Amino acid sequence: MRSIVQDLRFAMRMLGKNPGFTVVAVLTLALGIGANSAIFSVVDAVLLRPLPYRDPHRLIYLSQVNLQTQTNGIFLSFPKYTQIAEQSRTMESVAAYFAATLNYVTKREPEALNGARATGNFFHVLGIAPVLGRTFLPEEELPGAADVAILSDGFWHSHFAGDEHVLGRSIVLDGKTATIIGVLPASFSFPLQFPEPDVWLPRVTDAPFLRPEQVRTGAGYLVVLGRLRDGETLARAQAEFDGINARYREQFGGYADANKYGISAVLLETNIAGGMRTGLMV
Q1: DSSP string, 231-277
Q2: Of the candidates 258, 229, 222, 242, which has an alpha carbon nearest to the alpha carbon of residue 76?
Q3: pLDDT tens, 105-159?
């Protein structure tokens, strides 16, 4: 111990005599340690740790691919999502959502929130149950139905102080009143969307950035997730989607997404890592 203390004192004296070198050395170490810590945190979250959902290996990400340019990751339309949900036999269930910025009106001043509108079965597909309340009901997806809201754990604590009697209270979003029906667990995370939604609402057909006729005729704006049936494979699902897409082209040839787009299916884990996997591992 005496030797170590002497070495430390000597090192401190030498560093004190060379302040310029000392500053550069300390900054280099700080940046190196900080960068490595940050990268490992990302690798741990994206590559090493399993997704925080039920049977994550059965979750798939659906998008459109431009058949001419082979561009992938294009959002699906509501009609095509509906055809997949109705006709697929390899999928246990299929859900969709889109992200939206919401204007949250309080007594103090308006606040911009990260929000999303999702289909009623969205949290069921992920295998997530709220810690308070419930998820969306089928009748809440009907056109003209009153808005209801599911809160993230962070928003519940930051805006309602974790009040367990928050269910049934009303909040004003984009000038409309929404009734709080549920609160998501603190463990729920959604890496597909950044920043993650604070509030989830029903009815994916209520897209303020599209005209109703665009929603009905093939405008792409939905992120679609599905859960494979137990025993099914991604290859069989992809073959089925190719058939669904061909029938869609025949039935809705005049729609915006009918002719030049195909359907692409990848595991959700693969989609989240994307092209970053090799770089992150290096």
Answers
A1: T--HHHHHHHHHHHHHHHHHH-TTSTTSSSEEEEEEEHHHHHHTTHH
A2: 222
A3: 887 788 899 999 999 999 999 999 999 999 999 999 998 898 999 999 999 999 9
